[in-house]
Each structure stands twice: as C-alpha cells, then as structure tokens.
Amino acid sequence: MTDTRTRCDRTPAWGLLQDHYERMGRGFDLRGAFASDAQRFARFSQQAPHVFADLSKNLIDARAEELLLQLARESGLEAYRDAMFAGEAINNTEERAVMHWLLRTPRDAQTPNATVAAGLQEVHGTLDTMLALAERVRADDAITDIVNIGIGGSDLGPSVVVKALEDLRHPGKRLHFISNVDGMELGTMLRQLRPENTLFLIASKTFTTAETMTNAHAARRWFVEHGGSDDRAAPLSLSRHFYALTTNIEAARTFGIDTTLGFWDWVGGRYSLWSAIGLPIAIAIGAERFRALLAGAHAMDEHFRSAPLAQNLPVRLGLLDVWYRNFHGFTSRSVAPYSHGLRRLPAYLQQLEMESNGKGVDARGETLPFATSPVIWGEPGTNGQHAFFQMIHQGPDIVPVEFIALREAGRDLADQHPRLLANALAQAKALMLGRANDDGHKRFTGNRPSTFLVLERLDPASLGALVALYEHRVFVSGAVWGINSFDQWGVELGKVLAKDLEPRLASGATEGMDASTAGLVAHLRAG
Ligand code: F6P
After folding, report:
1. In the annotation, is 472 catalytic?
2. Is 94 a catalytic residue?
3. What would the pLDDT profile of 348-378 be if each residue is shown by its tens digit?
4. Which region, left, alpha or beta, applies to residue 434 given φ > 0 means left and ψ of -120 to 50 means alpha?
C-alpha cells in the first residue's frame, strides 16, 4: 500500500506546537489552569465505551489540544486509520494487513471489501471452534491444570486477562503461564502437576520461538517420562494433553500435536489475545464471557473508527503522548492500576507500546529526528506508593502517571475498596497541587501531570474496551510519528547472537568476540 501519511515534523502544526510549547507549554501551571477555567474537568474528560477518562490534570490547554488535533489531521491519521480498518497492508515492512480488530467484529457486521468479509468468516469459524473446545475442557473434570507455554504476545495478553478476571475463573481449573527459558520456571511448575490432570497449550504465532519451543519440548519429555505416550490410543496420550495455538499448523503437527487452533499473519503477536491465543482465557471464563470481552473491545473499535477526533479517547491519549514525548521531552510514563486484578497490565503495556513504537526510523526507513515511544513502567497501587512514588513526587524528572481505578469493588473484602480509591485520588491530587514548605525536604512542587481512567468494574467487557483503548492509542502516536508500529525488527539481533553464544558457552571458544562478552563467557564457565 502507499503510505499517504505526512510525517509529523513536516506538518505546519509541528512548528505551531513548538511555538505554543515555548509560549505556554513550558510554564504551564495546572493550578492556575483550574482556577481560570471552571469547565476544565468537563473540557478535558471523556466518556468512551466502558472507560471514563479524566485528562484535566495534564499539562495541556485548549490551544495545545487544538494544535495536536491539527497535527493528527495533517499527518493523515484518519486515512491511515481507515486503511487499517479496510485491511490494507499497513505493516509495510512485512507486507501484512493489521486486522486484530476483525477478531472482535460481529459476524454480521458490514465489511468494506471482499477480503475483509472473507477474513471475518474465517474469524468466526475459528472462534466457534475455539469456544466449543474451551467448553469441552471446562466440562472435563479430569483436567484441573492448564499450562500455557508462550512468550511475549503469546503470554502477556492471556495472562493479564486471566489474572484480571480471576473472580470469574472456573473453580476447577487452575491456569498457569510459563514463558521464561529459565528452567526454574517450568521445572518448579512441573513438580506440582500430574500429567493425567494437565493440559499444555503451546502458544506461539510462529511456532519457532526458541524459548517456547525449548519449554514445549521439556514439557513433552516430562509428560512421556511420567507415563504419557505419543500413541493416540494410549490412555495418557500426547494428543489429548497438548494443544497448539499457532499460525504454523504444520510445525505443530510435526511436534506431534493433533489439536491445533489457527490464526492469521495479520494478527500481530502483541495484538493476539483475541485470537486462538485467547484459548486459556476462554477456558478460564467460558465462551459467553469471552464473547463479552470481544464485544467490549469492539465497542472501543467503533468509537475509535467513528468518534470525531476531538471526542475520540484513543486519539486524545495518543496525541497527549506525542505532546509529552516530543515537546515536553518526558521520557517515560508510569502506569498505576489501583487494582490487584490489573497487576500485570504494566508488563503487557510495555510490550504493546514499546515493541510497537520503539522505532528509530520512519516507515520508509529514514532516521527520525525526534523521539518515539516513552519508557512504560509501573506497578499496581497502592504498592507503587511505597516504592517509587517518592521519585514521582519529588524527583527532578517529570513522569506522567496513569491511574486506573474501578468504580465497583471486586468480590472480596469490598469494604476496603473506598480506601483503595481514596489513595488513587490522593496521589493524583498531591501530584497536581503539591505542598509549600520552607523545608525543601518536605516541599512538593506539584504541577505533576496525571491521567485518571475509570472502569465501572473489572468485567470482560470493560477489560476488552480498556485493552483496545491502549491498542488504538499506540496506533495514534505511531501514526503521527510516521512509523510502522506493527513490526519488531529490533528483537532479531539478540536471537541470532544467542544462537551463536550457546555453543560457545559449552566449548569456551571466544575467538572473534568482543573482550567484554569473551570475559563474561570465561567467567560464567569458571568454577
Ligand atoms: O521476539 C518478539 C516476538 O516476536 C513478539 O513480537 C511475540 O509476541 C513473541 O516474540 C512471541 O512470538 P511467537 O508467538 O511467534 O512465539
């Protein structure tokens, strides 16, 4: 496809934003902004499907937002978004369409063309098969432990969702997520399992990822050593206890797996929890709730696709990210879910945002003269308050914080929920207002930005919408930056070098290596 975008730094809005930053942005004061505008909360808050966002405690005024919207228009954001929703190959370096949104599109939805229509039929065929399979596993009392072996997008998405929806998990099914090639992770888990009660899901888009394949082979060895068999007729057969979730069905079959669920190259790994990669979620919460997860995400897709830019939450958040990264120069953003269920969300968002937008060249391969993805990091509240919030309140770096709160309490100890919410509100307020004090140690300068997202409750639909919101927000900043958010060439080199280094660790051969790596190889072999 021809990329019709204009890179942000080549638009008229870019220069206007620079001027505006110098005149108003650099010295912007939140307290003054609230004092002079009684409508600030209303102006800078936004209701989107399942997610309410208060953006008012950000270092932004109406003019900055206007210019950012101009930037989005001049960059060609809308046409680029529409190209994604038309199934065009916007992942240009891999010549692939980007259609994770199709995975949550209703069966009878209008489609823009025959390719998307055909994709939608396939999506629903596989979804029906997957959900029927999930229900069979849920009904099978012999299976008590489901072990998902996968890494990156084949681990983080399902693991975040399963943890978040713990209240809704089938009580007879324990879900485990194994990702690290460190044998301690799988080894510790296997000691707690019995093969006759265990189902392994080998989750890998490519079915070639070294960590996943290593763990999958180790699991199979353990299974056979504990009475399992390759023979399909055997009572404890590999065929019954191993499923594969992959686009590479052939490789899964070669591994010896009969039950395979497929998906398509137009689903990026970090966007894949809605596909067959979501099987552990469906086993945990059941078919109907999995459909509710998809429906929540779809509602956000529709919002992103059709809401005017000025009332479009992914657009507003994505543009705020550009404002902070390229004009304020903030290098990171902290995510603070005030929810135990969402404790792994920061890890998930790290992959989503940094693997998508951590790029140094534009989609044409030209080196970028400006910064892209911020560092995304965080921990759930209130834990983070007793760890790194000191730095966010008083350190010299400004770190925008994203609070995520749930209006309704979860199932357990609901009486503690008001205390949790009060803490989230207090942190956001303290960051903004600060506190004067003659003693510098006790002084809070304030004027520190935050965004506050609220979900009604942690249910499948809200969670689906929240994740889709983040996906589209990453799309927006990536689109404006002119990059391809859907490839990840930066992970390749390390994979190649690890292949070379493993035999050298065994043999000690260090010729041709840099002195540091050679020294470390020798040190690791010693003793
Ligand atoms: O190495 C990075 C990566 O390719 C991610 O993009 C992906 O989510 C992960 O590895 C796992 O890949 P796969 O699902 O093919 O095993």
Report:
1. no
2. no
3. 999 999 999 999 999 999 999 999 999 999 9
4. left
